């Protein structure tokens, strides 16, 4: 199977346990560029959060799949980059979610992501923690007014594990038709359009590059990567992935601490 497109997760995949980039990867990606094989990053992060990683890898002009596929753009060199696909949270459902938060969950930190940026009503202890992780600062605005005028690609709702578990149960019982609720940590609830996924991003990118889906390769380390493994021609799990994930993937490479992505690219391309 000749690989014509690679889609890769970031955390636990190209980043090691200390959040350092696979040191062998930039040189390998330079070789892929010469072979005209696009290497695309996919993550729950915002474009701003992915920018420094893409820059170190030398792929700022490659497309990038943000918010787990909710917002796919054709590069990070310019903030007016062409949008390849965009799946926003429906405004009617978003308004209802905000109503539920206001009435029953006043302590929940509401983090709103729209296109390139991260927005909050006001900073709190949770946004400070998230800033420390991402090295980004949110813009402060009136979210109730903001969501009426701007697309929302993701909400990140943060509080104690107990509160978030209760909130998730409440939201799922509403049976929203177009919105999904996924825990990325015990106390992190991510809210996106149901159409947003790495699998759909892979399909959009394959169409964008006119590469048959069977000629695509995907790399990842967790359960949210499984759908793109199944959709691609070659799904490669990291050795640090859970055993069930490894069992579903077509191949298993070395761990994220052992330059597993570079090893996989060398072996299969």
Automatic annotation (TrEMBL):
Gene3D superfamilies for the chain: 3.30.1240.10, HAD superfamily/HAD-like
Pfam families associated with the record: Hydrolase_3
CDD domains, A to Z: HAD_Pase (cd07516)
Cellular component terms per the entry's GO annotation: cytosol
Name of the featured protein: Hydrolase
Keyword terms of this UniProt record: Hydrolase
Protein origin, superkingdom: Bacteria
GO MF: magnesium ion binding; phosphatase activity
Entry annotated with the keyword Hydrolase: yes
Species assigned in the record: Companilactobacillus ginsenosidimutans
InterPro entries attached to this UniProt entry: Cof, HAD-like_sf, HAD-SF_hydro_IIB, HAD_sf
